[in-house]
Amino acid sequence: MNDLTQTIAALRFTPLLPQALLLALAGLCLLALALATWRRARGAVWRALLFTAILLWLAGPRLVEESRQTRPDIALLVVDQTASMTIGDRPALAAAAQRTIEEQIRQHASELDGLQLRTVVVPEAGSAGTRLFAAIDRALADIPTSRLAGVMMITDGQLHDIPTTLPPSLAGGVPLHVLLAARGEETDRRLRVVSAPGYGIVGKSVTLRVVVEDLGVEPGLLQGPATAEITIRRDGEPPRQVPVQVGREQEIEFPITRAGPSVIDLSVGERPGEVSTLNNRAVVTVNGVRDRLRVLLVSGEPHPGERTWRRLLKADPAVDLVHFTILRPPEKDDLTPLNELALIAFPVRELFQVKIREFDLIILDRFTNRGLLPVPYLRNIADYVRGGGALLVSAGPEYAGSGSPALTPLSAVLPARPAAGGEAAVINQEFRPEITPLGTRHPITEALPGWRPNARPVWGPWYRAVAVAPPKGDVLMSLPDGQPLLITDRVGEGRVALLLSDQIWLWSRGHDGGGPQAELLRRVAHWLMKEPELDETALSAEISSGQLHILRRSTDAAAPGPVTVTDPSGKTSQITLEASGPGQFTKTLPGAGPGVWQVGDGERSAYAAAGADNPLEYEDLRATAAKLAPIVKASGGTVHFLAAGGATPGAPELRRIDAGRDAGGSAWIGLPRRDDHIVTGVASSPLLPAWLALPLILGLALLAWRREGG
User: Fold this and answer.
1) Which residues contact 269 (CB under 8 A, 6 or more apart)?
2) CB–CB of 32/686 below 8 Å?
3) DSSP state of 443
4) Which domains does the chain have, with CATH numbers?
5) Each residue of 97-113: pLDDT tens digit?
6) Is 71 left (phi over 0), alpha (psi -120 to 50) or beta?
7) Given CA atoms 92, 95, 98, 104 in this order, what sign does their dihedral have?
8) Which of 325, 515, 557, 669 is the most exposed place for a label (fewest CB within 10 A)?
């Protein structure tokens, strides 16, 4: 609609004298009239008319005509489209209300005095929650305050930037009208995790503190039991139920049974009448870590690499190292007095029978069976491995001799026996360790620093190794001629690794460029202790930035089959992984929603937890007027439920009202008239010009004189 042009006439005064002097003259005139009236002098009336004419002429009355161009008022409509507004029929109610308001503005322009509408849509925008008042402030930067007729807000009432006092943008009689996308005040049950540890010690328990809350239910008017049941699932284990009292914090303990992340899924049953069950579920990820890694290192005889082992293990503050070096066999006696020996007796029984299962890793470094360990204790080590323990054997020339561990009960768990020929099995020549094709796909040796496929490694050479018969397990490193150098194997529930050279210490000394000795031994030790990131057949899943990342490791040259992905709603899909490196197959799925995702390949499963992108949006899912009521009341606005009483979805009727009147009723919204305008022209003319004032004053003076002298 075009702007309306009006002409407004007004009486204004432009005094010919200063205002103070004009008031003084008026006072003298009144004094003279009062004196004449008191004396009952003739001509007092004419004298009063004369004084009035003089004062009126001196006041300079003028008729001013202004041409005004009235500017239409503007109403601001703010539409909430954040995550909580996607629940149930809220999108439909909000869309219907917006459509109704726009149609009223368009179809009833004359009745609404040419009211203009500005619409601001507030989308989902991260983890800051719903911030409609910030959107209002941005929108009003382009709307003159003098033209703002009111602000209408379509939302569920769950805002996170509500000011404590009426903001300046709504001051001055600007009403705030809130249209709630609901049928009335709602109730909601939520499961809230009060505290949860990010990690836990393997073998111990962690404690989660949770609380079940019923929102929107008045105390004393609870319907149904005041207790609820929390269902707990962890990494696909059978669920268990824990009864809790509504409104009170509950502590729940979980044992940490393995290293790596454990996904704990908690859910509570639906409350009758609640608006949504989206916040009836919580997911917590607890990373299992080992407290102190207990390592038993037994060195068969002193050699240059012994210090390397000790330095490596002592450098890790998380490792408790027990180290024994066998300096002499029991049968050797050099007649040294006992009081001069600074050595302690080797605690064979305590280490290899009583406390053997307290160790996370046993390392036999150039160990020779000279009768120090009786056969039952060696058998205990083998049983320790089968029961889930870890054994690393670093072999030298002794491995090919008569005291070789391969000739003891340990042979049942060792992956290779020395080649026939005894001492002839010892290889004394310069060589550079190479990674086998299988080793390039194994996490222990893949991308090992210094390794170059199809080229000479950049690390330094070794000079001694032990030849073995065809081994069991996986050969990860070898000599250039293919002779095994590093072999790993799984035995029962445990793992074992065999390094067929005692020359790795040359790398730590930087000989001829050195090599990745620390990294290689670290990977071997972590693989032996079943650290998840070093598992060669691992299947893992992780959610970050709203995407599900799947990683499948395989030492097979052929690509693995598809995996089955189960989303939080239970829907499954078959996904084919893509090769991303030697032994690694990955896939990224966009749009991972909140909840627990499961990935399985038929043999193993992985779980990933996704929280809500905007957790504030899911804290309270009710549509409620309680939070906005104080601001609405302070502004003089109204609150309407869009589907109250089963009404047809839409918006209340828009009406224009005068400033100061009530701004709404049960079925209508009032928008005050602001009457903002701009002046386009001014015309001014005197009401008592000089040519008229002079004869009038002289005539009245003459009449007054004639009357008083008559």
Assistant:
1) 228, 229, 231, 280
2) no
3) T
4) 4-69+679-709 (no CATH), 72-184+623-675 (3.40.50), 188-285 (2.60.40.10), 293-528 (3.40.50.880), 539-610 (2.60.40)
5) 999 999 999 888 788 87
6) beta
7) negative
8) 557
